[in-house]
Design goal:
Oligomer: single chain
Number of strands: 15
Number of helices: 16
Helix content: 40-55%
Radius of gyration: 27 Å
Largest sheet: 4 strands, parallel
Low-confidence stretches: 181-185
Mean pLDDT: 90
CATH topology of the largest domain: Rossmann fold
Number of domains: 3
CATH class of the largest domain: Alpha Beta
Distance between the termini: 41 Å
Structural class: alpha/beta
CATH architecture of the largest domain: 3-Layer(aba) Sandwich
CATH superfamily of the largest domain: HUPs
Strand order of the largest sheet: 4-3-9-10
RNA sequence: GGUCGGUUGGCCGAGUGGCUAGGCAAGGCUCUGCAAAAGCUUGUACGGCGGUUCGAAUCCGCCACCGACCUCCA
C-alpha cells in the first residue's frame, strides 16, 4: 500500500475527506448502473467512465476492490402511467420484457468494451434478487418503518424521520418538500406524501411479477440497490456512487431503507458525478437530446461533425473534473483529439529516448512532474490536473529529444512505468498501435518510401511531392526529418 | 417558489489569499527543398457592484445571468 492519501469529495458530509477503507486492503464500491429499457447514452456512460477511473485508481494504489454495479431490469416505473419501464418498452416493441433486458444489457456491455471499461466484479440484476428484496421489506415492516396498503408496501417516511434524519444526503427538508410534490400513481394508498413504494401490487396484465407475503407484485426501484449492496458488500461499505440526478430521491431512499431495515448506514462515502450537457442542458433520455456512445464513434448524429475514437472521447471527458458539468462540442472534441495525439507522441519519444548518462536535473524534473500527475489523482480524482502534468512531462521529453539528450536507464524505466501506469492502467486509455500494421503493408510502404527517397536525393521534388500528396489523400502521412523519412496511417 | 452548484482569455477547462495551470486556436522565429512533426517565443482572463485584507479571480454581502434537483433520469 502506498503512503499517499486519497481524498474524495463525500456528498454525505459535503467535504473532501481522506479515504479510509473499513477493512483495508479491501474496498467495497457500489455504483448505480443503467435501467435497461433502452440504450445507454453518452451521459450515462460519463458516470460509468468516471467510476471506472476510481475503480482503476483504487486498484493501482493496491486496494482489493469489489466493484458492484447493478442492472435495473424491473421496478423502475414511468411517472405518467406508473407502468414498468422495461415492460412498457416490451409492449411497444412487441417482445418479451426479458428480451428487452437482454438486448439492452448486451448493448451496454458492448459499449463498455468499446470504451475500455473494466467489468464490475458483480453485476447483479433486480429480477435476480427478488427474494433478498422481499426479505428486506419484511425487515423494514418488522421494525415498524413500512406499512401494507391494498397489496402494496410503502416506506413510512414520517415515522422514519422521527428517529433518523431523512434528507441528509440531498439537504432536503421534509417540511419544505410538502408543497411541490407531483401526483403519482398509487398516491392514494400512501399515508404521507413523501412515502415511497417498497413493493407495488401488480395489475392483472403485468408480465413481470412475483408472489410475496403481500400479494403478487414488483419491487420498488430504490429497494434493489439497498438489497444488493447489502448482500454483496455488507451492511456498511466503503463507497457508493452514481450520477448526481440520483441523489434525490433514489439515494436518499436507499439510505433510509438500509437504516430502517437495521442494516446500518449503507455507504460511508457517497460520490456523485455531474451531467453531460448539450448547449448547457442536461443530456437526458426524456428530453430526447441524447447522443449514443456508438454515435460518437461513427459520427452518425446531426450534432456531430464527424466520428471520434472512443479513447479520444474518454480523454475529452477527463479534461473536465467529474463533479463539473461537461458541455459537449465538436470544437472541444477536436481540440482533445489533437492533444491526445500529442500525448501519444510524448510517450513514444520517451520510449525511444537513448539511454546514457543523462542529467540529474532532467531525471528529477521528469520524475517530479510524473509524481505530481499521480498526486493530482489522489486529490478527488483530479484528471484535468493530472493530464496537465502529463502535458508538462511531454513538453520536457520533446525538449530533451530536440536537444538529443539521453536519460539513464533506471530513470527512463521508472518514468515509463509511471507514465504508462497513469495512461493505461488508471485512465484506461490505449493509444493506436502504429507498429501493429501488417507485414505486407509494411513492405509496400517501405518500397514507396524508397522510391520517394530516391526522388528526393535526385531533387526530383515533383515526384516526391506527388507521392506524398497522393498517399495523404488515403490517410497516409509521410514526414521527413533529420533521421530520415517515415510514414504513418492516420 | 425552495435547495444546491456555476459565471475564468478566441474556444475548452483547472486552480490557489501573493508565485506561468494545461490543451486547442492565433502571431513571430528556428529546423526543413517544400510540408508535417518538433523546439523557442508573444497576446488577450477571472459576470457586475460593494466589503474584509498590505494584497482578492480566490473570503464575505448584494445584484444579474445560467444550470441541476425538488419522488422519471447516470
Amino acid at each position: 500500500m502506498k503512503a499517499d492519501t486519497l481524498w474524495l469529495q463525500n456528498t454525505l458530509s459535503g467535504k473532501k475527506e481522506a479515504f479510509e477503507p473499513i477493512n483495508p486492503p479491501f474496498v467495497g464500491l457500489y455504483v448505480c448502473g443503467p435501467t435497461v429499457y433502452n440504450e445507454v447514452h453518452m451521459g450515462n456512460l460519463r458516470t460509468f467512465i468516471s467510476f471506472d477511473v476510481l475503480n482503476r485508481y483504487l486498484r493501482y494504489l493496491g486496494y482489493k476492490v469489489r466493484y458492484v454495479r447493478n442492472i435495473t431490469d424491473v421496478g423502475h416505473l414511468t411517472d405518467d402511467s406508473g407502468e414498468d419501464r422495461v415492460e412498457k418498452r416490451a409492449r411497444l416493441e412487441k417482445i418479451e420484457p426479458m428480451e428487452i433486458v437482454q438486448k439492452y444489457s448486451r448493448g451496454f456491455h458492448r459499449v463498455s468494451d468499446v470504451f475500455g471499461l473494466l467489468d464490475p466484479d458483480v453485476e447483479p440484476t433486480a429480477t435476480g434478487h427478488i427474494v433478498e428484496q422481499i426479505s428486506m421489506i419484511q425487515s423494514i415492516i418488522d421494525k415498524g418503518f413500512a406499512y401494507e396498503a391494498n397489496g402494496s408496501v410503502y416506506f413510512d417516511v414520517d415515522r422514519y424521520a422521527k428517529e433518523f434524519e431523512y434528507g441528509q444526503l440531498s439537504g432536503r427538508v421534509l417540511e419544505e418538500l410538502d408543497q411541490q410534490t407531483r401526483n403519482l400513481d398509487g398516491g392514494e394508498d400512501k399515508r404521507f406524501f413523501a412515502d415511497f413504494a417498497l413493493w407495488k401490487k401488480a395489475s392483472e396484465d403485468t408480465i413481470m411479477k412475483w408472489p410475496s407475503p403481500w400479494g403478487v407484485g414488483v419491487p420498488g426501484w430504490h429497494l434493489e440497490c439497498s438489497a444488493m449492496s447489502t448482500k454483496y458488500l455488507g451492511k456498511t461499505f466503503d463507497i457508493h456512487g452514481g450520477g448526481m440526478d440520483l441523489k434525490f430521491p433514489h439515494h436518499e431512499c436507499e439510505i433510509a431503507q438500509c437504516q430502517a431495515a437495521g442494516e446500518g448506514s449503507s455507504a460511508r462515502y457517497w460520490m456523485h458525478t455531474n451531467m453531460l450537457t448539450i448547449n448547457g442542458t442536461k443530456m437526458s433520455k426524456s428530453l430526447n437530446n441524447s447522443i449514443l456512445p456508438m454515435e460518437f464513434v461513427s459520427g452518425e448524429h446531426k450534432l456531430l461533425e464527424r466520428g471520434y475514437p472512443p479513447m479520444v472521447v474518454k480523454f475529452f471527458m477527463y479534461q473536465t473534473h467529474y463533479s463539473s458539468p461537461l458541455d459537449f462540442s465538436n470544437e472541444a472534441l477536436q481540440a482533445a483529439e489533437k492533444g491526445f495525439v500529442r500525448l501519444q507522441k510524448g510517450m513514444e519519444s520517451l520510449e525511444n529516448m537513448p539511454e546514457g548518462k543523462g542529467s540529474k536535473e532532467d531525471a528529477s524534473v521528469l520524475l517530479g512532474v510524473l509524481n505530481d500527475a499521480l498526486n493530482h489523482l489522489s486529490d478527488d480524482l483530479n484528471t484535468p490536473r493530472c493530464i496537465a502534468s502529463l502535458f508538462e512531462v511531454t513538453n520536457s521529453i520533446q525538449r530533451m529529444q530536440h536537444h538529443s539528450t539521453s536519460l539513464d536507464s533506471d530513470t527512463k524505466s521508472q518514468c515509463l512505468a509511471i507514465f504508462k501506469g497513469i495512461v493505461h492502467d488508471i485512465l484506461g486509455l490505449e493509444f493506436s498501435d502504429s507498429s501493429a500494421q501488417n507485414d505486407s503493408l509494411d513492405k509496400v510502404m517501405g518500397a514507396l518510401l524508397g522510391i520517394r527517397n530516391k526522388a528526393r536525393t535526385e531533387k526530383n521534388w515533383a515526384v516526391a511531392d506527388a507521392l506524398r500528396d497522393g498517399l495523404s489523400s488515403v490517410g497516409v502521412t509521410f514526414s521527413d526529418n533529420k533521421e530520415g523519412s517515415s510514414w504513418e496511417i492516420k
